[in-house]
Amino acid sequence: MAKRRKNRTHLKGANAREAHSDGVPKSFIIKHGQVGSSLTQLVRDMRKVMEPNTASRLKERHRNKLKDYLTMAPALQVTHLLAFTLTPLAPSLRIIRLSNGPTLSFRVERYSLMKDVLRSTKRTRSTGIEYLTPPLLVLASFPPPSPTTPPHLSLLMKSFQSLFPPLSPQSLSLSQARRVVLVSYNQESGTIDIRHYTITVKPFGVSRRLRKILEGGTTAKSTSGLLDLGNEKDVADFVLRKRGEPGPDGYESASSAESVAGDENAAVDLAEDYVGRNNKKGQRRAVRLDEVGPRLELRLIKITEGIPGKEGAVIYHEFVKKTKKEAAEQAAAHAAKEKLRKERRAEQERNVQRKKALKTKGQDGYAGESEGDEAESEAEYEDDGKWDEDEEISEGEASEEGSDPDSSEDEDRPPAKRLRIKGRR
């Protein structure tokens, strides 16, 4: 039997081009420092929100520092780093734009995990295929750009927009719109609320029981897709009556027989085929958002230029306000620091080039000297190999100043050792 070939069906068409394009932002979502199990689960939930353009199986180690991720991320074409940590006051979140910043620091006022949100609702659980496509970003309650709008709010909006792929209505397929990330700004409290929803499309203008007949239903005992009407005497009892809550005449009221998918404002005509049964082009359907979590309430604390370890000027601070003079002095100090850093870098480059040149020159000189030494040694070897007829040959070498060779050998000879015989005392 031939081996089954695995195909990546979730990377077909426009989605495949989008996944391999260079303009799609990619992110790392990590935790660093000593954090609890709740914050660790929040990191996993945020990875689900940012899928599929994030490292969902990234494993952190206790010895990993934030600097390690900042060094490794650009090599992997990662554009954003979301780092959670736990401070004595509250959990904090930093959104870092790689590789030159800016860095946005938030305080996590409140948060709810995905499991907590799903327990509080009776909606259908997600199947998991919604996370094969990136979510749609919706920015709400942000003030429009104007001369009176604080500049940090415009930068905050652009930062959230850069986290997700840009929306192109011309190339976006309707079936790819499966999730929504809502980022709303609360002007009274100055906080940012983040919500995560899945898009559900249901028939419009029919009751819930009739919708089960049209779409088919499953029970815990039967998973064949057929609706179980074994306990009903008539189809009208199932369609019109609500179990446990009969009306005055024993039938369901008209209000409860209406569509549960929404009112007329939520009804749309599908422009294309959508995911789900009978969701064909031209059909009138009601659109509903089911929250799956997590929920976050963030407070912007600080915006700085650069990245951690290479911070620049402070663009915005929630609690520290500086005058124009102090801001100018700070900008001058950062400019001087940056100038000194560039000068040191240029000096290091010059030193490296100088050492390379000296090394190359030394290797060339050593090669020339070695060639000359070899030539001299060869000439000496040739001279030594010649036979000199006038040279006197003797059996022994004459010592200097006519000294006796035998006497010199006796002087250098060590004294004789006394032999010891075993058994003799």
Automatic annotation (TrEMBL):
<keyword id="KW-1133">Transmembrane helix</keyword>
<dbReference type="Pfam" id="PF04427">
    <property type="entry name" value="Brix"/>
</dbReference>
<keyword id="KW-0812">Transmembrane</keyword>
<dbReference type="InterPro" id="IPR045112">
    <property type="entry name" value="PPAN-like"/>
</dbReference>
<feature type="domain" description="Brix">
    <location>
        <begin position="25"/>
        <end position="309"/>
    </location>
</feature>
<feature type="compositionally biased region" description="Basic residues">
    <location>
        <begin position="416"/>
        <end position="425"/>
    </location>
</feature>
<dbReference type="GO" id="GO:0000027">
    <property type="term" value="P:ribosomal large subunit assembly"/>
</dbReference>
<feature type="compositionally biased region" description="Basic residues">
    <location>
        <begin position="1"/>
        <end position="11"/>
    </location>
</feature>
<feature type="compositionally biased region" description="Acidic residues">
    <location>
        <begin position="370"/>
        <end position="412"/>
    </location>
</feature>
<feature type="region of interest" description="Disordered">
    <location>
        <begin position="1"/>
        <end position="23"/>
    </location>
</feature>
<dbReference type="InterPro" id="IPR007109">
    <property type="entry name" value="Brix"/>
</dbReference>
<dbReference type="GO" id="GO:0006364">
    <property type="term" value="P:rRNA processing"/>
</dbReference>
<feature type="transmembrane region" description="Helical">
    <location>
        <begin position="69"/>
        <end position="90"/>
    </location>
</feature>
<dbReference type="GO" id="GO:0019843">
    <property type="term" value="F:rRNA binding"/>
</dbReference>
<dbReference type="GO" id="GO:0030687">
    <property type="term" value="C:preribosome, large subunit precursor"/>
</dbReference>
<protein>
    <recommendedName>
        <fullName>Brix domain-containing protein</fullName>
    </recommendedName>
</protein>
<feature type="compositionally biased region" description="Basic and acidic residues">
    <location>
        <begin position="335"/>
        <end position="352"/>
    </location>
</feature>
<feature type="region of interest" description="Disordered">
    <location>
        <begin position="330"/>
        <end position="425"/>
    </location>
</feature>
<keyword id="KW-0472">Membrane</keyword>
